[in-house]
């Protein structure tokens, strides 16, 4: 929990405009970098336990691909955008089948993953991100996205270790 936050803050507001533990949970947000089963399973379990939707956020940088589409009125290459969205849908398909009671909202967007996750945290009950297990005792042990989400998310954050 964040300092000054209460458990009721994870719920949607009641008709009087106050977060209430008697109302439904806000959605769970999953930041999907690499499609690791441990992280995905944790997010689906949390969404199922809370009886709420799971928002899956996958962001991608545009700069490596911009050279192929740069010009006046630059817009992201439609084919590439569709390809990224299709890949996300393919990754989540078996999980949707395993958890048919969990509503899944897929968000595949260009830009900063940290920014998209921090924005999504404003309406979330929980943000789930992954962290690769590093065997080396030296150096950082969380990535830049996880670090940013931990420091700037307005919702509680679960960091799930994976290989």
Q: What do these coordinates show?
A:
The chain has 163 residues and is an alpha/beta fold. 35% of the residues lie in helices and 19% in strands. It contains 5 helices and 5 strands; from the N terminus they run E-H-E-H-H-E-H-E-H-E. It has helices spanning 37-50, 63-66, 78-98, 113-121, 144-152, and strands at 28-31, 54-60, 104-110, 126-132, 157-162. The chain has a 5-stranded parallel sheet with strand order 3-2-1-4-5, sandwiched between helices. Helix 4 packs parallel to helix 5 (144-152). The longest helix is centred in the middle third of the chain and has 21 residues, at 78-98.
Write out key terms for the chains shown:
single chain; five-stranded parallel beta sheet; 5 helices
What is this structure's SSE topology?
Elements (H helix, E strand, L loop, with lengths): L27 E4 L5 H14 L3 E7 L2 H4 L11 H21 L5 E7 L2 H9 L4 E7 L11 H9 L4 E6 L1
Parallel strand pairs: 1-2, 1-4, 2-3, 4-5
Helix pairs in contact: 4-5
Distance between the termini: 26 Å
Regions with pLDDT < 50 over 5+ consecutive residues?
none
The ordered string of helix (H) and strand (E) elements is EHEHHEHEHE
Shape assignment: globular
**Radius of gyration in whole Å, from Cα?**
17 Å
Strand content bin: 15-25%
> Quaternary state, please?
single chain
Number of helices: 5
Quote the average pLDDT: 83
In spatial order, strands of the major sheet run 3-2-1-4-5
């Amino acid at each position: 929990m964040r300092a000054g936050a209460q458990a009721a803050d994870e719920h949607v507001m009641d008709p009087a405009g106050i977060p209430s533990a008697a109302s439904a949970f806000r959605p769970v947000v999953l930041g999907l970098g690499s499609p690791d089963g441990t992280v995905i399973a944790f997010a689906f379990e949390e969404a199922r336990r809370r009886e709420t939707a799971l928002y899956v956020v996958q962001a991608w940088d545009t700069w490596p691909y911009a050279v192929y589409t740069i010009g006046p009125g630059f817009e992201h290459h439609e084919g590439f955008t569709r390809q990224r969205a299709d890949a996300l849908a393919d990754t989540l398909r078996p999980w949707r089948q395993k958890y048919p009671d969990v509503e899944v909202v897929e968000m595949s967007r260009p830009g900063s993953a940290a920014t998209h996750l921090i924005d999504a945290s404003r309406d979330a009950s929980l943000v789930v991100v992954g962290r690769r297990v590093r065997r080396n005792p030296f150096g950082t042990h969380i990535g830049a996205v996880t670090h940013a989400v931990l420091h700037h998310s307005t919702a509680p954050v679960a960091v799930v270790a994976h290989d």
